[in-house]
Design goal:
mainly beta, 7-stranded antiparallel β-sheet, Pnp Oxidase, Chain A
Length: 172
């Protein structure tokens, strides 16, 4: 690295390129507002605390889910597995069509993907605006997990199968 300062545009592009090379689990974040289902794909999701059990979800304010999630009392973070790639690809379509693919149910009045690796239903506990995003903190209300699923992982603008990653020999 040189001592020359990067312009804002250069810094943003370098940040984007850096983040493209961080493997991330793919999530379908969903909610209901005025009887209509909303959802987006996200990778900016993280566990927050075990007491109380909680997580955070970062959503761009320009995303179709943002305003409904601002109003919602509950949301679901569906951890997508390899078998949910069709759902992920379908979530890239216009909002009205997103729930046409996948086995969607309703639990605690939010859309839940029955075949997800895990589903974490949360009560919205806090909302914090920062930059272009809102950070939603959700306190866990219900959770379920499938033991046989491998997470759908996004890396360098593509989905990868981490179960096929080469194994390193254990140190002696």
């Amino acid at each position: 690295m040189s001592d020359a300062a990067q312009s804002h545009a250069e810094l943003v592009e370098a940040f984007r390129e850096s983040m493209r090379h961080v493997a991330a689990t793919v999530y379908a974040v969903t909610t209901k507002d005025a009887g209509q289902r909303y959802g987006i794909l996200a990778t900016a999701v993280s566990s927050l605390s075990f007491e109380p059990p909680s997580l955070l979800v970062c959503v761009n304010r320009s995303a179709s889910l943002h305003d409904p999630l601002e109003r919602a009392e509950r949301f679901c973070v569906n951890v997508l597995g390899l078998g949910n790639r069709d759902v992920a690809e379908h979530f890239m379509l216009p909002r009205e069509d997103r729930f046409d693919v996948g086995d969607w149910t309703e639990e605690l009045d939010v859309p839940v993907l029955a075949t997800a690796q895990s589903s974490l239903i949360c009560r919205t506990a806090h909302r914090h605006s920062y930059g272009t995003h809102t950070i939603f903190i959700g306190e866990l209300l219900a959770a379920r997990h499938r033991e046989d699923a491998t997470p759908l992982t996004y890396f360098d603008r593509d989905y990868i199968d981490i179960s096929q990653a080469p194994q390193r020999p254990a140190d002696s």
